[in-house]
Every structure is written in structure tokens, then in C-alpha cells.
Write a structure and sequence with these properties.
This protein has 3 helices and 9 strands. It is mainly β and 131 residues long. The termini are far apart. The relative contact order is 0.14.
Length: 131
């Protein structure tokens, strides 16, 4: 594996700011609505809302108002969880609180897949794992 193979992929229209499966909205990268809704509501209106057509979205919207869940999530390629500021990690890393760390799934051979803190990996994903 070369270092080039580890660089994150980015859409040209996002200018390298978000992963291929993310979209920029309100200065954060979110998983694309088209992926979250299997193409039924491909347009992001808010952090929690996807729509069947371009905004304004008075009808045909789907809303899921959960923090770091529902439609307000980052892509699977960056580790899922909360939306993040633009900028990517290497493919073998995950973004956590604005920093890139080696993926927990790689560190623990798939036994602890989710990052709970900068120095802890967990079996399940919870918003407040380490409290």
C-alpha cells in the first residue's frame, strides 16, 4: 500500500472538503441525503431534513431530529457519528472531535469498532460513551 492509496477521496465540486459520500451544509460535512434516503429525498434542506426537490421544501420532506443520528450524521467512510468540519483523514483513520485517529476497527481487529474518546474504542456507538 502506498501513501497515495491512503489519501481520502473527494468530489471535485466539494473542492476536497468532504468525502465522496458527504455533502457540505452550514460549514459541516453530512452524509449525502441521497444515500440516507436511497434516492427518495436527495436534497438537504437542514441538518435534520432531506427533501424530494430543491428548497424551499414545503412538501415531500423527511425530518429526523436526533443529534448525531438520523440525517445529522457524517459518512461511514469517516467513521459515522456527528457531522464534522471540512477536511479529511486518511482512509485508515477516523475523525473524532476534529482530530484524525487510526480506526478503532483496525486497532482492535474488528472487536471494538467505535471510538469513544481519543484513547478508547467501544463495542457500541453512544453519544456519551465515556461518561
Amino acid at each position: 500500500t502506498s501513501l497515495h492509496d491512503l489519501f481520502p477521496h473527494a468530489d471535485s465540486d466539494e473542492q476536497g472538503k468532504c468525502s465522496d459520500d458527504e455533502e457540505l451544509h452550514g460549514n459541516l460535512c453530512y452524509k449525502k441525503c441521497s444515500l440516507l434516503t436511497t434516492g427518495r429525498q436527495p436534497y438537504r434542506v437542514t441538518a435534520f431534513e432531506c427533501c424530494a426537490h430543491k428548497p424551499p421544501c414545503l412538501a415531500g420532506a423527511s425530518i429526523k431530529t436526533k443529534l448525531c443520528a438520523g440525517y445529522a450524521v457524517s459518512s461511514d467512510t469517516v467513521g459515522g457519528g456527528c457531522p464534522h468540519t471540512p477536511g479529511g483523514c486518511l482512509k485508515d483513520e477516523e475523525l473524532f472531535e476534529g482530530m484524525c485517529y487510526m480506526r478503532c476497527s483496525l486497532l482492535t481487529y474488528g472487536m471494538l469498532k467505535y471510538r469513544g474518546s481519543s484513547s478508547a474504542c467501544c463495542k457500541q456507538r453512544f453519544l456519551f460513551n465515556m461518561l
